[in-house]
Amino acid sequence: MKRDVIFVGNRLILNEAYERYILRSIKNSLASIDSISYFEESDKGLFLHLEELLKNESKLIIITTKSTFTIVGKLLSTVTSDNQILKEQMLIPSRASILENGSYLLSHNHSDINVLLATEGKALPPILIDDESRQAVIHLFNEELISAQTLLEPLAQNFDVKLEFSELVEGWLKIRIHTRRHGNLSQFIASARGLMHHKVIAAANIAAFIIERLTHHKKKLSFAESCSGGSLAHFFTSQSGASNIYEGSLITYSNTLKANWLAVDDDSIEAYGAVSAEVVVQMSEGSMNVSYADYTMAISGVAGPTGGTETKPIGTVYISARSKTAVHTERFHFEGDRDYIQEQSVLMAVKMLLNIDREMFFS
User: What percentage of the chain carries pLDDT values higher than 70?
Assistant: First the structure.
């Protein structure tokens, strides 16, 4: 069964922050999203798109504005050979089975359609679709894609599940597991953990997993960021419970603040440059000294689109992960635009945090 999302209305297309909020809410309700489509208010292609989607079994969520809510209801009534009725001061298809606070659910053949009236700055109406799909997500570290597929695909066949792989950064695979008719998710995950000891984390949300683990062990986390500009901090603070393990960190773009706030040696900056292993090691140490955290990570690099040199081209990033007993520092070269380079830097830093204390995070 496909899971599709349609945005209808210019206002929703323009408001990127509200759109991201809507998609986060939908992802919390649906097992996955197969397609996202955008239509302006007067786009005549919407009718044909709806007609095509509803030919097959689908779970469809349509996000509308005040000016497109009734239009969408009329189009759905036409596609499903229904008529509109006035209910709770809203025109909706007469076959809508549930209506709740600006959201209604309509079933047609083998499809469920949930239409929501979205208003910027307001909470999204309730999502009424019940997604019974059985799936899970695990994360696999320090394993190449080909070897992971070779090891896990036979196991998947044994437990009648289907696997989808994506490499987030080198050495970090995100694996989505779908059950087939007689599949057993829990036994597959347990077997995968046994087969790949100290490599598998059975959690969909890694940030939430780290927060839970550090909270349980009463550990703290802090960062020193340069080219990532606070993205690493946001990776964790976007999750509930972050305040249990995170008290703050430092974003030091200038060399002056690297020296004054993190005690990075001026001679190191002069000799090696701000984007260097020598400096990023001192940044992670300075972050630990200032915060008294149990784990720190530091990032410094060239995110672009300008600033690269022959020896340190755009995408060059140094990351240092530190615990009370160990420190690990690496140089990376990421490709893509500025945002993607920053996002890859954050993911690699998180991977290095997990590896700096494998007993803590993988046991």
Answer: 99
